[in-house]
């Protein structure tokens, strides 16, 4: 059985009152009231979701139902049913072959962590490999950004609250999978996990399809960007609570489209989905771009409303992300859906999430988890 959704869809009036309370810094009790008004009474599952044999057979089986034990229902592998997985597996195989065939890999010039360009037999770039133990502040970072004694996946990140050292690879994959689940709306390049050799050492990390580009967004004026592309990236960043969206990790591809000169491709998602206890680091460069204040298109609105936090939470659990980070996705998605339904622009929503100015004062969103959990605890104690 699927886990219960943390938040349910409110009425339009509830959406408006909730957002006005949040945007106007109304007392936290009002915010909680709007959030929890229709919260289900059942407790949300906290353990990783497990598919039973019966469920798999019923949900994913193909062909006619079994007439006898000698005629079992044919069950296709789940991997073929999850959007993006087939492409990720194909990329992993190509990357592994390229890493083994090339011998010593060469470190790229840019970035704070280890990143290596993988090429095919014809020396054409196919992917970027980022080992976990070479991520920013990981033990073997080749650029000097090292946290000595850090344990991958366990040690708290020394400079990024809400993260653990070496877990950026999981988030890179999570960003792709969450985007692939909705027909690649935001255009995150194919990403997978792989264990590949660097010299004589085999390392685990993320591998992302190489994206040929003319430049990054930091090299162009914002007038060159289409409203559609800015919006698709902004929606992704709000879903994932991106703490590192800057113009340098948005690639620009030349296009023949008459409406825009460039197609924007978002990359570098290793610093998304922090713990819900640290919602203080959202960073959205697009907040300063005029496109963020434009109304959303009908297609963008439909995409936002189609987001399913229950399904997305199951996907994130399958990747091994902890519950406190999954809750961040649920909170962020809920906010995005309520705000869009009430007619807010992505600029308005981003201003609720990102801290103002120097970042000394909490954002409007930061009080929500505390208010929700405090209110639920009170509600539960009243029923005991």
TrEMBL record:
<dbReference type="InterPro" id="IPR000403">
    <property type="entry name" value="PI3/4_kinase_cat_dom"/>
</dbReference>
<keyword id="KW-0808">Transferase</keyword>
<dbReference type="Pfam" id="PF00454">
    <property type="entry name" value="PI3_PI4_kinase"/>
</dbReference>
<dbReference type="GO" id="GO:0005524">
    <property type="term" value="F:ATP binding"/>
</dbReference>
<feature type="domain" description="PI3K/PI4K catalytic">
    <location>
        <begin position="1"/>
        <end position="384"/>
    </location>
</feature>
<protein>
    <recommendedName>
        <fullName>PI3K/PI4K catalytic domain-containing protein</fullName>
    </recommendedName>
</protein>
<keyword id="KW-0067">ATP-binding</keyword>
<dbReference type="InterPro" id="IPR044571">
    <property type="entry name" value="P4KG1-8"/>
</dbReference>
<dbReference type="GO" id="GO:0016301">
    <property type="term" value="F:kinase activity"/>
</dbReference>
<keyword id="KW-0547">Nucleotide-binding</keyword>
<keyword id="KW-0418">Kinase</keyword>
<comment type="similarity">
    <text>Belongs to the PI3/PI4-kinase family. Type II PI4K subfamily.</text>
</comment>
């Amino acid at each position: 059985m699927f886990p219960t959704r943390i938040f349910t869809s409110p009425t339009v009036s509830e959406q408006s009152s909730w957002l006005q309370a949040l945007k106007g810094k109304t007392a936290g009790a009002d915010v909680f009231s709007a959030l929890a008004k229709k919260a289900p009474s059942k407790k949300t599952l906290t353990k990783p979701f497990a598919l039973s044999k019966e469920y798999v057979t019923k949900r994913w089986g193909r062909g006619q139902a079994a007439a006898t034990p000698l005629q079992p229902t044919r069950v296709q592998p789940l991997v073929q049913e999850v959007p993006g997985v087939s492409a990720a597996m194909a990329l992993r195989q190509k990357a592994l072959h390229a890493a083994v065939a090339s011998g010593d890999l060469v470190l790229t010039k840019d970035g704070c962590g280890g990143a290596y360009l993988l090429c095919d037999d014809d020396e054409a770039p196919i992917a970027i490999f980022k080992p976990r133990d070479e991520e920013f502040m990981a033990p073997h970072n080749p650029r000097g950004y090292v946290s000595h004694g850090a344990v991958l996946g366990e040690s708290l990140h020394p400079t990024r609250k809400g993260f653990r050292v070496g877990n950026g690879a999981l988030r890179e994959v999570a960003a792709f999978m969450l985007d692939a689940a909705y027909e690649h709306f935001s255009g995150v390049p194919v990403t997978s996990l792989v264990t590949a050799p660097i010299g004589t050492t085999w390392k685990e990390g993320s591998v992302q399809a190489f994206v040929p580009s003319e430049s990054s967004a930091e090299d162009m004026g914002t007038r060159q960007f289409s409203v559609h592309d800015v919006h698709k990236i902004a929606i992704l960043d709000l879903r994932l609570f991106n703490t590192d969206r800057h113009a340098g990790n948005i690639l620009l591809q030349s296009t023949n489209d008459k409406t825009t000169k460039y197609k924007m491709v978002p990359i570098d998602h290793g610093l998304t989905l922090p713990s819900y206890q640290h919602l203080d680091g959202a960073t959205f460069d697009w907040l300063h771009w005029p496109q963020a204040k434009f109304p959303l298109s009908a297609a963008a609105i439909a995409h936002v409303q189609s987001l399913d936090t229950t399904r997305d939470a199951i996907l994130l659990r399958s990747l091994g992300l902890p519950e406190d980070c999954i809750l961040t996705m649920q909170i962020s998605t809920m906010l995005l859906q309520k705000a869009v339904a009430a007619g807010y622009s992505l600029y308005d929503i981003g201003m609720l999430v990102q801290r103002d100015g120097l970042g000394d004062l909490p954002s409007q969103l930061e009080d929500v988890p505390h208010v929700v959990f405090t209110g639920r605890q009170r509600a539960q104690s009243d029923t005991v």
